[in-house]
Amino acid sequence: MVRISEDQLRLLSKDELIVLIMKLFDELDLLKIRMVDLEEKLNQKVSPENQKKEILSWVKMNVKSKKKKSRKKRLNSFVRLKDTPTNTIFHSHEKCPNCDGYLGKPSVCYSRQIIDIPII
Fold it and tell me: Model pTM greater than 0.85?
């Protein structure tokens, strides 16, 4: 690299300045060539082709997940509706036996439905 202070530049003649400028142009060309080489090396390192490694023989490949098929739609009302139960048993009290406070809606413990099937 050429390093010259401002005072030295003012003392140089026109011919010496031209020679100095030519040296600087040559140095600039060399630096451009070096920059292109370094960019190529950088691109080679980053490219995915060079990043792939050889896969070992005992390694299993990942299984690609398949798109799930939608289920087969059935007709509406495919189920038999329940009739009103013949017998219902509640296992909770409506009011507390000790303090006579309201306990809320009673829950159903057992519900039974008897279906009569005609004899054919």
Answer: no
Which pLDDT band holds residue 50 (cuts at 50, 70, 90)?
A: low
Q: How far is CA 82 from CA 56, 71, 78, 79, 86, in A?
A: 61, 26, 13, 9, 11
Please state the domain count of the chain: 1
> Is 93 inside a domain boundary?
no
The range of the structural domain enclosing residue 34 comes to 6-50
Q: How many CB atoms lie within 10 A of CB 36?
A: 10
Separation in Å, CA 63 to CA 34, 91, 96 = 45, 53, 61
Question: What mean pLDDT comes out for the span 90-101?
Answer: 80
